[in-house]
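Reading is simple: each integer encodes one residue's backbone shape. An example follows:

___
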Amino acid sequence: LLSLSLKHPGEYMIQRTLELHSTVQTTDFCRAWEEIARNTAILRTRIMQCRDVGPLQLVLNEDIQWTHTIGLNEHLEEDKKSPMEVGKPLARYAIVTDNTGARRWFV
């Protein structure tokens, strides 16, 4: 799927959204998700191209790189334009708010 997604950016990716309840603190949510990622290898996986053996699946010990932005539809469109590439994380994480700041989504 990675090679197909390189040929057809955006076609082989899924964007999931979860609206956060107003009582959920963003920092607490992000901290909890980071703990999940630390304990779930697939959330820290990358595909690397190795000259000698071909593609390798690697699990890295690194923190999530969060995106914080405004405008759900705009974020989804921009994110879809960014291809999943060899050596890059297979999952991206964002906290998106609406223009008023009243609603938030985990993407």
The beta strands are 18-20, 45-50, 54-59, 66-70, 93-97, 104-106. The chain is about 25% helix and 25% strand. Helices lie at 2-7, 26-38, 72-81.
